[in-house]
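Forum > Structural Biology > Help requests

Title: Can anyone predict the 3D structure of Dynein light chain tctex-type 1?

Hi all, first post here. I have the sequence for Dynein light chain tctex-type 1 but no way to get a structure on my laptop. I'd be grateful if someone could post the structure tokens.
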Amino acid sequence: MDKVEEIKDIIKECSNEILQKKKYQHAMVNRWTTVIIDKILGELNQKKYKFKYVVTSMIIQKGNTGMHSSTSCYWDNSLDGNCSYRWENDNMYCITSVYGLTY
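Reply #1:
Sure, ran it for you. Structure tokens for Dynein light chain tctex-type 1 below:
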């Protein structure tokens, strides 16, 4: 398994652990995203990869709303990288991205 797939699995596991049986609650979104990000960073640090990480996570209530997000990076494509994962249940989406920058 390559690093990107391994990191996607970490994102998926952390998202499932925190959100699996939850219903969207606006008051809890900040807490949930913070816990997801902290868990992902903890797992990544245990891997001992030679990366500095940036992790972002957003939770969006399902409904008749749209959402668009865009990101751009200036880095070395042969060494640095990113991956994203969209988790969802019946009432919300959680979109998490991990950026790995070599040092």
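Strands lie at 51-61, 81-88, 92-102. The helical segments are 3-19, 29-47.
Shout if anything looks off.
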